[in-house]
Amino acid sequence: MRQVVLFIAMSLDGYIAKEDDNIDFLNQVERPGEDYGYAAFQTTVDTLIWGRRTYDKVLAMGMPEFPHKDKKCYVLSRSKTGQDENVEFYGGDLKDLINSLQHQPGKNIYCDGGGQVVAALLKENLIDKLIVSVIPHLLGSGIRLFQDGRPEQDLVLTRSNTFPSGLVQLWYDCVKPSR
């Protein structure tokens, strides 16, 4: 069955962005030729789930082309419906969407935030794997990756990578609660 995989970066103190959605701290670890396994990871997924603010942030970055044209992309939104040239907006039940996607043929399903999407997925135990890149920086405040209000969850560390930039990447499998 297709797995839901979170691939995301956060500051050492657990933030994915500042309050104003600024993610400039990620630039600290940019090195020529180093993508921290992102390109290899992208070959394992064919579907993407984002929150609306994350999607808006990507569009505001002014890239010449949408970076995931080769994937089916869903943007979770309470207010926007339909689709645009890049994505389909989805305002329904997240469990229904994941269940439907997992029962279709294809590769894994990639989630890349934001914090509210991650919280909703964790609350429903819908994430199968976490790949978290920890940036050696303390933001002090901002948008937390792991919000309060989610159930406890056991994780199994399957891999860890360290890089000369100071970035540490942690790979976890989520232990699903027994029924």
Would you kindly provide a written description of the structure presented here, covering whatever features stand out?
- This protein has four helices and ten strands; from the N terminus they run ββαβαββαβαββββ.
- Strand 9 and strand 10 form a beta hairpin.
- It is globular, with a radius of gyration of 16 Å.
Task: Please supply descriptive tags for the structure shown above.
4 helices; 179 residues; 10 strands; 8-stranded mixed sheet; single chain; alpha/beta; two-stranded antiparallel sheet
Give a brief description.
With 179 residues, the chain is an alpha/beta fold. The chain has helices spanning 38-42, 52-60, 94-102, 115-123, and strands at residues 4-11, 15-17, 45-51, 72-76, 88-90, 108-111, 129-135, 143-144, 155-162, 168-174. 18% of the residues lie in helices and 30% in strands.
